[in-house]
Amino acid sequence: MQTRPMRWLRKNVVVLAGVLALGYLILPNLVVLAFSFNKPKGRFNYTWNHFSTDAWQHPCGVADMCGSLTLSLRLAVYATIGATVLGTMTAFALARYRFRGRAATNMLIFLPMAMPEVVMGASLGTLFLNMRIRFGFWTILIAHTMFCLSFVVVAVKARVMSMDPRLEQAAQDLYATPAQTFLRITLPLAAPGIAAGALLSFALSFDDYIITSFNAGNTVTFPMFVWGSAQRGTPVQVNVIGTAMFVVAVLLVVAGQLVGGRRRGART
Amino acid sequence: MTAATAPPPTSPAPATVPAAPRRAAGRRRLTPYLLLLAGVAWLLVFFVAPMVYQASTSVQTGSLDEGFKVTWHVATYWDALREYWPHFLRSLLYSGIATAACLAIGYPLAYTIAFRAGRWRNVVLVLVIAPFFTSFLIRTLAWETILADQGPVVSFLNTVHVLDVTSWLHITQGDRVLATPLAVVCGLTYNFLPFMILPLYTSLERIDGRLHEASGDLYATPFTTFRKVTFPLSLPGVVAGTLLTFIPASGDYINAELLGSTNQKMIGNVIQSQFLRVLDYPTAAALSFILMAAILAIVTVYIRRAGTEELV
Amino acid sequence: MTTEPTAAPGDAVRLSALSKTYGSFTAVHPLDLTVPAGSFFALLGASGCGKTTTLRMIAGLEDPTTGSVALGGKDVTALPPYKRPVNTVFQNYALFPHLDVYENVAFGLRRRGIKSVKQQVGDMLDLVQLGGMARRKPHQLSGGQQQRVAVARALINKPEVLLLDEPLGALDLKLRRQMQLELKRIQTEVGITFIHVTHDQEEAMTMADTVAVMNAGRVEQLGAPADLYENPGSTFVANFLGTSNLIEAEVTGTSGGDIQLVAAGQRLTLPAARCGAEVTTGGRVLAGVRPEKIALVHRDDEDAIAEGRNRVPGRIVDSSFIGVSTQYVIDSPVCPELEVFVPNVERDGRLVPGAPVVLHWNPAHTFGLDAAQDIDAGLDADAVEAALSPDGAGTAAEAAV
Predict the structure, then answer these.
(1) Taking 60 as the threshold, does the pLDDT of residue C383 lie above it?
(2) Three-state SS across B91-113?
(3) To the nearest whole angstrom, how far is the Cα of C19 from the nearest Cα of chain B?
(4) What is the pLDDT of residues C224-260, one digit of tens each?
(5) Touching chains, A (3+ CB pairs < 8 A)
(6) Ranges for the ABC transmembrane type-1 domain (chain B) (predicted)?
(7) Tens-digit pLDDT profile for residues A105-155
(8) Which residue in B162, C212, C253, C307 has a CA-CA distance of 20 to 30 Å to A47?
(9) Which residue of chain A has the CA closest to C88?
(10) Best mutation target, A10, A84, A96, A126, to test chain B (most B CBs within 10 A)
(11) C touches which chains (3+ CB pairs under 8 A)?
(12) Could you tell me if B159 lies within 8 Å of chain C, comparing CB atoms?
């Protein structure tokens, strides 16, 4: 007969391992948070010196950082819009129609996701270089839209394929023209997939360093600023931005959950 | 009253179908191509064309001042391989180990979220995804702090003599963790862990909980149930997760750059420096293609072995 | 049995030589059919028989290969679904999951540009007894409630014809019975023509004024439920609609209004008026009788049977007690598996498996069918058709796109 703690351990060993894994995932964010309140002795913010809220009071107190941050946000917004529009159209074509070249298109969508970023970045950079296209905002935007596109297609396609085609037939049966059917039925039903693709695009674009570094020229996005500052000593403000992004993301998700929960709670 | 006949087979020629539906059908045949046009064009111009161009670059010779010309100088490939094979090997090794570690760490977490988290499920999911929104560079830099030479983690590992063992295994050096293979693999594992957890969770979540009960009802122990029911059903997630982890990890150079030393440089570092610092584009292109070929070969064999076609 | 279709303005639906083929598969053979206004019409058949395809062609969701569809005397063959004055209650309802009950019901009105829908939606929800559910989402409703929303959503548009595609298929037996009566009530109340597609023969007979039995893309027989049941025109209808005992017999002669038959030495009488097939002395014919028309006595009591009744000896093979009646399977020289339903009025304790018995019935209850057809047609129609077309015609249509 096993003792009681042993039995408890046996039953919950998976959960314990899961909690440890979660700790592994969260630990760096906690460190980033903690060190956003540090006042480092030298230039390097690696060891704890003493508590200070300086960085939080002056988040843009470092030269060029907030400029790169707005650039990254702008890029992410544009890349998200571009990739979401192009990706949604492509996804509808792939999910709703059988046509010649469908398999090839699926392959074309899959490849960018299966390609190491360094290869994609270097290839596109080489092309721009040889076409004598000036590196900068537009080259980065093109690159970001390119690698976000596939992720949108996958997200939207999965959603559209799981939709019941009879719903659109029902709409047509109820006097909705094809355009009305699309706007009133298809689009709202596909919205969660489109939103997921857009969110993923935003995160990927905002966070991308590798592909950007090959296509940016002298333009400095936020990740590139962080990379550059890592060599000279990262300013504490970088931790502030990192923590703020984390908190904003969590709040957004919580808000989304609450809205969704209220909608679901409408049942009585 | 109602009247009806099923007409005899020799009934007169039926009324012709009006033209309107036909025209609509013709338009419908064009619709998918119109929808695809922009997206596919974008990928063809900015993804496929660069690849093709990269292929031609890899057999060019020349210099930045005189320009590069296609001379079918295939030797670039051999030279690149001869010089950088340790980097290739290291890349595949590190990313392979990191992928295995991600699976080992990620599976319990994905399983917990799917079957054991109950009402905490959404909270835990958010905690898995949210770190994404802090720039991964910032988080990787945080590992520098965590693994710092005088930090609590290293001190602890030193005290319990773990570092002696790992040093003996040549994965750490002396009483340091930073600038060693362990730090790089640790960083890779951390960075790509969510890419493992999410597909695993998706495929686990689809499993009907009653299957566990059915398996238990048919005399399977919990472990046998996992081995014979849960794990096989989660295989698509395992395959997707390992690919999503292994492929980007093998081309990564951030972790090697920030957490490793010159002895831990991966092939990504080489391509990046050839391209951005040495400006030897043919070599950078050749290295890219060798890396692609290696990944393609490994992935193909892996998918064959895993016996699943569910790539996307 | 049938007459030529006539174009009358009173006809709600008129199909002329309507057919549909997918590649080499013919889902619906050229079909002429007229449904009078205000009737409750059922298309009955096993899955894959073409009934749903026919319905979808009327709705405009499927382009016919040949032929035309006229609604209220107007040809609508070329019109897209959203321009046709018909509405459909879909299989599994196809309620819009992102809209609540109210918006689902109001959908059709709004699409036609009607602004003030409140009154109409309210009335319609009352009609289907869902007054308090207006703000619920479809997934918060039970199956029966969803079904009623689907009916309300279609009916509110006052279509010339309401098409119902297996509307009760997803409900459990008890609810299905209840909804059958409910739909019948609604139809009587609103007076709109209903065309109802179903594979459930009891459902078709309960609800419809007229039933068209479809088989392999053709209408096999059409008529009032009682008429179809009593006078099946083919073995398919005889077997698919309820249960029939079919006895292969030889014609020995005719006398008066009766045809004299002999099967395995047993003499049987068949009213000539109830025989659809041509008969010649010495020829063969199938004599059919419904199981509930047959009486069953122990062989010891054979003498008590009145003169002039058809009688057949046999032995009980199996019996199952189902409450209102007991169903017996009888092995007889004329047919190896005769079915007999005996109402449970007074139960004879001797009627157990193995007991020798005599079956007898009023000759007027016998019907005659052409012997030159498959005697088992329609018996396992579902299995055969399911094998031909795994998910019914709807999937075939999608696969062909």
Answers:
(1) no
(2) HHHHHHHHHHHHHHHHHHHHHHH
(3) 9
(4) 999 999 999 999 999 998 889 999 999 998 888 899 9
(5) B, C
(6) 88-302
(7) 999 998 898 888 999 999 999 899 888 899 999 999 999 999 999 999 999
(8) B162
(9) A173
(10) A126
(11) A, B
(12) no
| For chain C, domain boundaries | 11-234+388-399, 244-376
Contact across the interface for C17 and B15, Cβ inside 8 Å: yes
Distance CA A182, CA A177 (A): 9
For residues C315-331, give the mean pLDDT. 92
Domain C11-234+388-399, CATH: 3.40.50.300
The number of folded domains in chain A is 1
So what's the architecture of B77-311 in CATH? Orthogonal Bundle (1.10)
Kindly list the residues of chain C whose beta carbon comes within 8 Å of any beta carbon in chain A: 59-61, 80-83, 86-88, 90-92, 94-98, 107-108, 111-112, 135-137, 140, 153-154, 157, 398, 401
Q: For the whole model, what pTM was predicted?
A: 0.79
In 3-state terms, what secondary structure has residue C4?
coil
CA distance C304 to chain B (A): 44
pLDDT surpasses 70 at B135: yes
Q: What is the pLDDT of residue B92?
A: 93
- What residues make up the domain containing A100? 63-221
Which positions ≥6 away from C91 have C-beta within 8 Å? A166, C52, C165, C166, C167, C169, C170, C394
Q: Is residue A15 in some structural domain?
A: no
pLDDT at C294 over 90: yes
Residue where the block lists tokens 């109340």: C189
Q: Mean pLDDT across the stretch B45-61? A: 90
* C104-138: pLDDT as tens digits: 999 999 998 888 899 999 999 988 888 889 999 99
Tell me which residue has tokens 């403000």. A237
Alpha carbon separation from C199 to C48, C164, C180, C208 (Å, rounded): 10, 12, 14, 13
